[in-house]
Design brief:
Elements lengths: L19 E7 L2 E4 L4 E6 L12 E5 L5 E6 L7 H6 L1 E3 L3 E5 L7 E3 L3 H4 L3 H4 L12 E7 L1 E8 L13 E7 L5 E7 L3 E7 L5 E6 L43 H4 L14 E2 L8
Parallel strand pairs: 1-14, 2-15, 7-9, 8-10
Antiparallel strand pairs: 1-11, 2-3, 3-9, 4-6, 4-14, 5-13, 7-12, 10-11, 12-13
Length: 271
């Protein structure tokens, strides 16, 4: 596990005895500062007909939840709750230990993310976009990028990037969604249990074919070219064994770059 004091960690290893892991899965854009990163999930809940609707969730093994009595569930989402998919309103999302001011360690994450600016230089992403359905601020832990377990074997450069934050936090994990209209939702997760934040095309209503253009909702014009950039094939693939979201065996994404995390800014293409 990542040690906050030393910064030491084996990238391929997943041990949560002294903390937990938070995955960011699906459509999410990262804005990095010196010691922190803000994550924006574009709002794909009601897109144009040619796009596949995407929905934001906190995903957790139901057996790992201590108390979710302050997290209301709609009748339509009750079945999802039994799987461990907690629907999110438009909100600012917080987790214990990820924003305590100790500083974010992210030595390669920014360079490992494909760039929305390179996908469409004519449509800059707006950090203050009103069309972000969820915002998460990260200022503690170690942040790294991995290729999805569903990455195409024959084309690793066309892989969805999933970000993993290793958090040195030992107690029960409090998750708070400060809804912009719906008020506050809160739940408590057992200590050391891994969690995911996902912006994914599930349930699939069978409408639309495109995923990547939903990132356009973070631009002033609400559009972006359907031109996801390749990733560095040397980025390691994520081991899914410790993460409930992969045990669900749901079609959460197709494993390609069109469904993965992105960076906001222009950078050199992967070598």
């Amino acid at each position: 596990m990542y040690d906050k004091e030393s910064g030491d960690e084996d990238r391929g290893r997943s041990e949560t005895a002294s903390g937990y892991e938070l995955l960011i899965v699906g459509l999410a854009c990262f804005f990095g500062d010196k010691d922190s990163s803000e994550v924006l999930l574009p709002d794909g809940r009601t897109p144009p007909p040619q796009f596949t609707p995407h929905y934001p969730y906190v995903v957790i093994d139901p057996n790992d939840v201590e108390d979710d009595s302050e997290w209301p569930v709609s009748a339509e989402a009750a079945d999802l709750r039994t799987l461990g998919l907690y629907e999110l309103p438009k909100c600012n999302l917080q987790f214990s230990g990820i924003d305590d001011g100790f500083g974010l360690v992210a030595p390669t994450h920014e360079n490992d993310l494909p760039s929305l600016a390179m996908a469409d230089p004519s449509q800059p992403v707006d950090r203050n976009s009103p069309h972000a359905v969820v915002r998460v601020r990260l200022s503690s832990g170690k942040l790294e990028a991995f290729r999805s377990p569903d990455s195409p074997v024959d084309k690793p450069e066309n892989s969805a990037i999933i970000s993993r934050l290793q958090v040195a936090y030992a107690g029960p994990i409090v998750v708070v969604a400060n809804g912009l209209r719906e008020g506050v939702r809160r739940m408590t997760v057992k200590a050391g249990k891994n969690i995911a934040v996902a912006n994914i095309g599930f349930p699939d209503a069978g409408t639309g074919r495109h995923h990547f253009p939903i990132y356009g909702f973070l631009t002033a014009s609400k559009t972006i070219a359907d031109n996801p950039q390749p990733v560095n094939p040397a980025i390691p693939q994520l081991d899914p064994n410790e993460h409930h979201i992969f045990r669900l065996k749901l079609p959460i994404n197709d494993g390609t770059a069109a469904c993965g995390n992105q960076g906001c800014c222009k950078k050199d293409p992967p070598g």
